[in-house]
Amino acid sequence: MAALLATDTAQAATTVRDNVGGYYVACRTEDALNLLASAAVTENAPLGLGLMTSDCAFLPEGLHVSVLGRASHGRTRIRVYGGPHGPVNVWTNSEAVK
Predict the structure, then answer these.
(1) Would you place residue 82 in the very low, low, confident or very high pLDDT band (cuts 50, 70, 90)?
(2) Using CA atoms, how far apart are residues 54 and 16, in angstroms rounded to an integer?
């Protein structure tokens, strides 16, 4: 998944916020993002690592994205441009997007 999130500023409308202490995370599905949050809260490292190698990736600071929609529970659907497979739609925490 990380290879899908390469930066390209050509079609971007917004950026990922600066995040002191690390990067924000994005996942292919909202369910995967919710599972990752649950794994972090319950300190379930095997689940978290599994998701980070299959369905989720870190969003580097300053990455250019377009916002597709916001959910009422703190999640935002974004489109990341420039990866080798073209634009990728992913879910992230709403505070990740400026």
Answers:
(1) low
(2) 21
